[in-house]
Model the fold of this input.
Amino acid sequence: MLCKYKYTTHLCVFMVLLLQLLSRTAAQSCASSCGEKFSSCSCHATCESLRDCCADYNHFCLDIEPRSGSLLGGADFKILNVTFQQNINLTCRFSSEIVTEGYVDEDGAGHCITPLLYESGWIPFEVSTDGLHFDRSGRWLSVHHSKLSPFHTSVLVNATQWQYYGTPGVGGDLKIIWIPSLIKAERVNIELWGYNETGEAYSANWEAEWKYLYTVGRDVPNTGVFSFTPHIADKPYSLWDLGSMRVSPSTKPDGAQNVNALWSGAHAVAWHLEEAFRRDSAAWALEKCISWDKEEKAMPDFLTEITDCPCTLAQARADTGRFHTDYGCDMEAGSFCVYHPGAVHCVRAIQGSPEYGAGQQCCYDSAGAQVLTGDSIGGSTPDRGHDWGAPPYRKPPRVPGFSHWKYDVISFYYCCLWSDNCKYYFTHRPSSDCRTYRPPRAAVVLGDPHFVTLDGATFTFNGKGEYVLLQSSDYQLSVQGRTEPMKFENGTVAMATRLSSVVMREKDSDVIEVRLTDQADVLQVLMNQQVLSFSEQKWIDLSGVFVFSPKATNVTVMFPSGTGVEVRAGEGVMTLTVLLPHALQNRTLGLLGTMNDDPEDDLTSSDGLMIPLNSSAQDIFIYCAGWAVTNETSLFTYDSTYLLNEYSSAPKHDPSFVPNFGVTEDPEDPLLTPVLELCAGDGASFCKYDALSMRSLDQGNATLLAYRSHASTKKALEPVRSCGWLSPPNHGQKEGTLYLEGAKVTFSCHSGYRLYGSQERTCQAGGEWSGEDAHCVADNTLAIVLGSLGAVLALVVMVIAVVAYTKKQNKEARKQHDDKVTYQQSGSHL
Ligand SMILES: *[C@@H]1O[C@H](CO)[C@@H](O)[C@H](O)[C@H]1NC(C)=O
Ligand SMILES: *[C@@H]1O[C@H](CO)[C@@H](O)[C@H](O)[C@H]1NC(C)=O
Done:
């Protein structure tokens, strides 16, 4: 039919061929995800659509429980919705290479045991019933052990006692507990496993080693508790000082790999160290500390490439695209900052450093100021191995948790905890002050959409459709937003819209979509069009992106560029905050504007046309409509009839939806007085618009709160000048540990010393300290100097005299000698 008219035949044949080609590709991709027998069905790659098209979709989207567990392996997960025959041998294969045993339980449900993975994130797995064909698949979420809930681990009771065992005053019995039902056995063994890294650092043969050392408790009842009196281990076991305890069924051979097990967190294995440690732990630790110091000196310097810390606690907590709470020192969780006395909260740089995958940590005291190693043993320290690991994981120094323990934590025990030689540690792990830190810029979309751009321009846009909120070709970053008409409480459509979904990606990362659901204020997160559940884990490592959702109303998406996207749900609307690091300056386009400190050019269309900020609501509407995404660029998922009808096929901007461009403040309106009362101060106009157009004070209030929250984020992110850390003078001390603009630091000297240079220095607006460096000079130094000068003078006089005398003597001697020679020579002529 397409090829009816002769003159279009060629084009038409071409198009038909193209269509065939396209559908073949779709069928092929379907075949690869569904298996050959489903190649005829026109399915997408998602489990949701497979459910409709593949009769036996359960083959490819195995639902399991639990869905996540420790990257050390040992979890037993159950395959849901599939029944297996009792007599088969179930095998499971992870990441297409690691095969572990599975089993079928009495109800016919299949189970797999997860393997040691050395990486976090989604791990694909396949299941086989004959050991040959792995024809069912699913995915497992591998989690850093310190981010796991204690219900998925075995717990060392009184961890400090474990890690200090054998140091003065620490002894007794050690206790470990676990949830018995998580080990499917009557009796268990308690084993110690050790971690090490072998091969040459930063070379291809650098590998992680996870080794069974010995069994501490054998064939003990699986009651969930085990106590023992530690003994010094035989060599070479006593040389392993970093490891985890494993609880596993006693039916398994000692040290069997990848069996059902519960691991404890990593710990410093003080309790089995050699005799020398028990005799004098401080001396033993100092020796270790010194040899670590030597090793560090031989390794490449990573400090130059790690990111600088935020200057204040407020900045650190607002810069959520680049920094995230350190679980070891979290004020929200009321945690006691064991390694950082004096700090109330620490954050870690989310991304590993570019070349070495190194980490940065930043700690703050109760006044919100940085705690620095130069001043305090509680100071924050950078890490050769990022605690959370760094993609692509698997190998040192990127193994989550363990590389960090190996290079940064056990050495802290040697130098700072088991002995008092922290200066060695801090030489290699000094806190970062914040002299080169630049806070990110924040833009927001809130209410029935009001926009505050990256440069702070504001406008309102109530179009219906899907639009480019932010785009950066340099970073291949794209953030798109969908708006949909608001509804009044009685269900009728209002002439205003709200943001209902946001989708984003950076480079070839997983595509993340966050959208409102029918359930009030519950956000749904999609990864590559599939629903992600945060019921087991709050933080998920994905490919090229991290997502954190501590509760259904809050989602944070973090990209390698340092871009952070915060989505919040409240009062049925979505608030979107985008945080952009300074590196993206001048590299952004879209409705959130061009980030260049100039709000005037923020309303620039995709083809470079600029409209003034004070344009009419109608002109702004036309401008914004121009930023609609296209079928080709859309990243959204259209997985419901509503979305398919309203957004997927239609033009992305719906020209038939014409909103109210303004609200009239009618004095007769009974709502006006309470609205005017509510909507005061900054954000008042947004509040008024939303309250009056939606006839809802709650709506206005939600908008006002979102606006204020944005204002406080911006305030928290204001740049602060730092003049950098100042050291106390030798033989003296300093008062003051604040180094930000306006801070004063004073110096004094120990008795017997006098201060030279400035006694007080102030951090000035330009980021420089006033005055000069302070030095302490001993009071009697001058006398000594003068005395020595006199002595030197006397010496010089003597030397001159001696030299003159010697010269004279020499002269005479030479004369005599010459005479002698002359005489001898003449004599020889005789
Ligand atoms: C799969 O099994 C779970 C738990 O048994 C159940 O809640 C769920 O509805 C099942 N799903 C399907 C698609 O049958
Ligand atoms: C959720 O987000 C709100 C607003 O940004 C914030 O105040 C709150 O602390 C967040 N909750 C959690 C659990 O992170």
